[in-house]
């Protein structure tokens, strides 16, 4: 069978109309899969993201380094903000633990910021989470930025 030039153009157009949406769908699939994998790997503060032992170390570190300004009750002082209660919880709600870690690491203590190690900050965050009623688990919170980015501070229990 011989096709005319007009028939070949029509067949080519029809083929393009059929193939293009399929091709676009296949091209979009990896991105959709990546987004769903990211949602599955994101955890919240309710997912037992720290251990009880780590929170214990954090409590010791907090009392040595932080309580002088933020008080032993985490209620804050004259210029130091509270680390517990509704104002603290709502100000961090929805943010990542990486944001909290970075804030503490780069701004505390206010008289000599940046002197605390990443591990000290991570342990103190574990203590703050336990103090604020979040459940401990069997695995310690890690101070790698990628891991902390995937944990959201969520105040309301899902």
Question: Can you walk through the features of this model?
Answer:
This protein has 158 residues and is mostly helical. 59% of the residues lie in helices and 3% in strands. A two-stranded parallel sheet has the order 1-2. The N and C termini lie far apart (66 Å). About 18% of the residues have low confidence.
Short structural summary:
This protein has 158 residues and is mainly α.
Q: Tell me the strand order in the biggest sheet.
A: 1-2
How many strand units? 2
Shape: globular
List unreliable stretches of 5+ residues: 10-38
Radius of gyration: 26 Å
Mean pLDDT: 83
N- to C-terminal distance: 66 Å
Residue share in β-strands: under 5%
Number of contiguous helices: 7
Compressed to H and E, one letter per element, the order equals HEHHHHHHE
Give the fraction of residues assigned to helices. 55-70%
Largest sheet: 2 strands, parallel
Return the structural class.
Answer: mainly alpha
List keywords for this structure.
158 residues, mainly alpha, 7 helices
Topology (elements, then pairings):
Layout: H1 5-41, E1 43-44, H2 52-65, H3 67-70, H4 85-92, H5 97-107, H6 118-131, H7 145-149, E2 151-152
Parallel strand pairs: 1-2
